[in-house]
TrEMBL record:
It holds the Pfam family Peripla_BP_3. This is LacI family DNA-binding transcriptional regulator. It comes from the Bacteria. Residues 2-56 form the HTH lacI-type domain. Keywords: DNA-binding, Transcription, Transcription regulation. One of its GO terms (molecular function) is DNA binding. InterPro entries: HTH_LacI, LacI/GalR-like_sensor, Lambda_DNA-bd_dom_sf, Peripla_BP_I.
Length: 336
């Protein structure tokens, strides 16, 4: 492998001069710099990122940690991060935490040993001294969900407003008995969407009925099982707001299995607007999150701060309803 020492010998200069010429740091005359660059090209010299990192220099690598790569939301988020990383000549490492704080700690310690320049982290991980230690001193931007690290910056959607919009949409269609399949209780995103649902009901003068709320874990099977559990409670409902699109997909399957027509008998709203939402039949009415923009903004915040660009501390991006075919006006027929 060609080393910086070989380039110095080829160019007839010192190793320090080669390092200054290649890093454009320190005073190096134009002619000398050209001589060094030509020698490096002739020898096919590749800067050693690890050697650079050992001297505390940037390695040109960032990482993104997401909970579940099988959920289409996260690959879309990573696509946005990748776009910005590539535009800044950064290599992107992808890690999956499986919503497990201990896994996240192991991955962060490994990334620190790799001298990554920074991390985009989908937060919501259980707080621990180990997680705080693994994040300490590491440039981090949280995306989608907050982290427990004091002062950390986060780029997320307005989850509470999204919950309100979903519920207001159903109320405007005449629904008064609206169920909610919520995400995991420990996640702030799920709590925020639930609180938006509750606020919209109360502002419309409709009672909040806890027996119409069930948890679905942000998973298809959770939406399916949640809908079946709601049916067993025998509380009538004509609409259901699901806290993400995967649970809405599970709920649609459950409604079909019990012979309830969507939207004629039950209206369904999701949250995320993943790419597949418009390809379902009927197409899913949902709350649109600017998923790739979330990724782009988080990466820009991370890389920009490393370049000392002025950046806002945190950003909350707006959401909106995308009306498709799973919602319709209530026809005054209660669920059987
Ligand atoms: O679908 C996965 C959910 O987890 C999304 O709603 C996203 O906001 C993330 O928090």
């Amino acid at each position: 492998m060609v080393t910086i020492r070989d380039v110095a010998a080829e160019a007839g200069v010192s190793i320090t001069t080669v390092s200054r010429a290649l890093n454009e740091s320190g005073r190096v005359g134009r002619a000398t710099r050209e001589r060094v660059l030509n020698a490096a090209r002739r020898l096919g010299y590749e800067p050693n990122d690890l050697a650079r990192s050992l001297h505390g220099k940037a390695t040109g690598t960032i990482a993104v940690l997401v909970p579940d790569i099988t959920n289409p939301f996260f690959p879309e988020l990573v696509k946005g991060v990748q776009e910005v990383a590539t535009a800044h000549q950064k290599l992107l490492l992808l890690c999956q935490t499986s919503e497990d704080s201990e896994i996240a700690v192991q991955e962060l310690l490994h990334l620190r040993r790799k001298r990554v320049d920074g991390v985009v982290l989908v937060g919501g991980l259980a707080a621990s001294e180990q997680l705080d230690a693994a994040l300490a001193g590491l440039p981090v931007v949280a995306v989608d969900r907050d982290t427990t690290v004091d002062g950390s910056r986060v780029v997320r959607s307005d989850h509470r407003r999204g919950g309100r919009l979903a519920t207001e949409h159903l109320i405007e269609l005449g629904h008064e008995h609206i169920a909610h399949v919520r995400g995991p209780a420990h996640l702030s995103v799920a709590q925020d969407r639930h609180d938006g649902y509750r606020e919209a009901l109360e502002e419309a003068g409709l009672p909040y009925d806890a027996s119409l709320v069930v948890e679905g874990g942000f998973l298809e099977e959770g939406g399916y099982d949640g809908l079946r559990a709601l049916r067993r409670r025998r509380r009538p409902f004509t609409a259901v707001f699901c806290g993400n699109d995967l649970m809405a997909i599970g709920a649609l399957r459950a409604l079909e299995d019990v012979g309830l027509a969507v939207p004629d008998e039950v209206s369904v709203v999701g949250f995320d607007d993943i790419h597949l939402a418009s390809y379902l039949r009927p197409g899913l009415t949902t709350v649109h999150q600017p998923i790739q923009t979330l990724g782009r903004r988080a990466a820009a915040l991370l890389i920009g701060s490393a370049m000392n660009d002025e950046q806002p501390a945190s950003e909350v991006l707006d959401v909106h309803i995308v009306r498709r075919q799973t919602t319709a006006r209530h026809r005054r027929t209660e669920v059987r």
